[in-house]
Known about the structure:
The chain is mainly beta. The chain contains 3 helices and 11 strands; from the N terminus they run ββββαβββββββαα.
Amino acid sequence: MMISCKKGDAGPAGPAGPDSVFYSSWIPVQMTVQPGDTTFAMTIQAPAITSAILNKGSVVGYFLEGDAINITDSSIVDANTDLNLLQTFSVGKVELLSYFEDLTNQVEYRYVVIPGTIAVTDASGVVQHYTADQLKKMNYQQAAQILKIPAK
């Protein structure tokens, strides 16, 4: 007796593994004023930020000012460059705190979660290894190109 098996359809893709780079969508900034203060705040739920990432990897935040057409657009800036803004990362969330300006409807925000070390293949086919700290020091255009993150 011969049994014939037919290959089934592929199932849905699973969640990213622990060694994968994760980037959020562009999130419209909607801040609330802190009672009795001129401080504006926003909390973003970020389940990709785990204690392992905080201990061994890195999280980087970016602002999109206006509408970027491609990743070379200069309207994408590192959120750390704004001296009046504090961004903090903790397990499961990102907190933005602006001391003098309400950024509501002015910018969008994206965070990138980077595990300890990332191996990527460059244009010539050579595998390059980048640490989370090296990627954190890159501007958005460099990191987006290496990690294949779309501008929009």
